[in-house]
Design brief:
Blueprint: E1 7-15, E2 24-29, H1 37-47, E3 52-56, E4 65-70, E5 75-76, H2 80-92, E6 102-107, E7 110-117, E8 120-124, E9 130-133, H3 136-145, E10 155-160, E11 164-169, H4 173-177, H5 183-186, E12 190-196, E13 205-210, E14 218-219, H6 223-235, E15 242-247, E16 255-262, E17 265-270, E18 272-281
Helix pairs in contact: 2-6
Length: about 280
Amino acid sequence: MNPNPRSRPFHQVDVFAGQAYRGNPLAVVLDAQDLDPATMQHFANWTNLSETTFLLPPRDPGADYRVRIFTGSEEFPFAGHPTLGSAHTWLDAGGVPKAGGYVVQECAAGLVRIKRDGGRLAFAAPPLTRCGPVGESTRRRLAAALRMSAGDIIDASWLVNGPEWIGVLLESAERVLALRPDYAAMGDLKIGVIGPHAPGVGTDFEVRTFLPGDSMAEDPVTGSFNAGAAQWLIESGRAPEKYVASQGSVLGRAGRIHINTEGGDIWVGGESTTCIRGTVLL
């Protein structure tokens, strides 16, 4: 831990919901350049949130800021709701983008562009570093973890863009909402499940994501998984180029992820609300 703690600006932001306290919370520490990784990890564990971010000056001359992203137990090279929440906080604290139309975030996965999309922010989905069908043994593990037969899985694919997600497609949103997973059987698998809603419901897909072993076994709303799932489903013709996914329903949340294909990129958007402004001693 830092032997000489000092006061630093701190925000807690709700991401991917139009109403405060219905999305996925994120802790953001500004002015974090002299913090060591062990202190960052310890504080992220203490917040007991799915992720905590630390904003630093950029190293890349094309970036507006640099971010380090920690769960309660590990650092991620990229994650979606921390990207939108960090950009929201940076702008809220007076940040002015160098490029005008875009905020450019530097993270361990590279540069990520973020744009204003009406009242929302949206990030350009980073390329998948691993994709393609899972093996048969992994498919059996997925079925056991989700307490279903392997035949109930319509498709399953690696969707790695930082977090090592496996995407599982089910036949309907109802099947997704009814899941009662076996976390012990999940082992180290990070599983995102998605299924289509019937027309007229208001959203097009239902999503749930599971992170066994972390402080929150089910994530309320997950930008990184939705970014990978959008690339997978749109490219395979299973989803339109523009859709809305809901997530967090079984947790009492109302997450909304807005997907839009534009200019050769898939944009992942959502609303953010600052819920807490203050300082933290670190």
